[in-house]
Inverse folding.
């Protein structure tokens, strides 16, 4: 394999010293870029785009051509796993992702099976391999999956939800069924992420996007143990190199110490928690990723620079920080705002390292 020219992101995840704070953005390949919209138009649909390794590679590389980012992330969707389980993923215009066959009946839940990532999901592995070749050692490639709880939310609700009424009702009334879904899904996520690692992903991230919708007791029963199960099952080394992992629970700042205890390398933070306080709470257990409010990118350049510096100053001159947004970048973000952010993070963090 080609030696990495820029391994700053991987070193930061492993809490090793870096010359500056590395940066990438959740949803960095996406609708805020006009070139993405052109590729999406050629694909004909979002699912066609996801299922074409060549087009997925194209859109993965687009933000790297514009910005001096320190990592690429596989272009895909978190719902590929339940789709491979046979739930029938489709995208309704103006409604987002939906499933034709959501999990409602006990027999459907009991019949749930782990998909073979090298069969139903081979298109993802082909994309990972193609992207890795195209990167040619420039920056690392991140693979990802949804968390067991977040995937279960979609699988039971049948799509996005404002109140999670169906999935929470099942969790409270039939915890046995809920745990069965989570168990099968956790093992599916492990197989899926490990296949991505074997195909060339150099770090992996688990998106627990809906974990913050749970109560404290429910989070510790229905999300956190399955995040731990995923982390425990991941390949930790490939081709003689560590493969770090990141766990991100949106709204999970309340439980950051618990998350740091599951054995992950890094914890992602949303924008609601001060990253300096978070660093003091977790000590040297994990690296931290985050955590600028994505809506800062709608402000003028001087405000973007000010708020980015605020995050960097709060974390301080310590190893183990990967700069990111506190959630995915908005499709309405001006592309030039991202340039301001990237330049500010790299320049200001170098000054912090130099003690300026």
């Amino acid at each position: 394999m080609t030696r990495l020219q820029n391994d700053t992101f991987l070193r930061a995840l492993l809490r090793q010293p870096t010359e500056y704070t590395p940066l990438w953005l959740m949803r960095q390949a996406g609708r805020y870029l006009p070139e993405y919209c052109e590729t999406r138009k050629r694909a004909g649909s979002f699912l066609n785009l996801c299922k074409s390794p060549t087009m997925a590679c194209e859109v993965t590389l687009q933000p790297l051509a514009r910005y001096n980012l320190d990592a690429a992330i596989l272009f895909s969707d978190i719902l590929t796993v339940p789709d491979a389980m046979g739930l029938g993923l489709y995208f309704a215009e103006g409604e987002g992702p939906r499933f034709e066959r959501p999990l409602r009946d006990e027999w459907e839940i009991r019949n749930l099976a782990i998909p073979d990532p090298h069969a139903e999901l081979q298109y993802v592995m082909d994309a990972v391999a193609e992207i890795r070749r195209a990167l040619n050692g420039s920056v690392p490639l991140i693979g990802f999956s949804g968390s067991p709880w977040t995937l279960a939310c979609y699988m039971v609700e049948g799509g996005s939800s404002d109140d999670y009424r169906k999935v929470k009702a099942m969790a409270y009334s039939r915890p046995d069924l809920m745990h069965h879904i989570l168990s099968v899904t956790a093992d599916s996520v492990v197989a899926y992420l490990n296949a991505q690692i074997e195909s060339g992903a150099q770090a992996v991230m688990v998106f627990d996007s809906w974990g913050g919708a749970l109560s404290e007791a429910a989070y510790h029963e229905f999300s956190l143990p399955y995040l731990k199960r995923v982390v425990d099952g991941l390949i930790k080394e490939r081709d003689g190199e560590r493969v770090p992992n990141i766990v991100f629970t949106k709204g999970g700042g309340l439980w950051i110490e618990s998350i740091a205890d599951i054995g992950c390398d890094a914890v992602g933070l949303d924008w609601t928690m001060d990253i300096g306080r978070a660093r003091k709470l977790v000590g040297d257990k994990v690296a931290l990723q985050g955590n600028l409010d994505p809506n800062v990118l709608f402000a003028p350049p001087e405000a973007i620079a000010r708020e980015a510096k605020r995050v960097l100053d709060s974390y301080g001159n310590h190893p183990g920080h990967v700069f990111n947004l506190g959630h995915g970048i908005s499709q309405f973000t001006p592309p030039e705002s991202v340039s301001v952010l990237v330049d500010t993070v790299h320049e200001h963090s170098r000054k912090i390292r130099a003690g300026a």
The first strand starts at residue 72 and ends at 73.
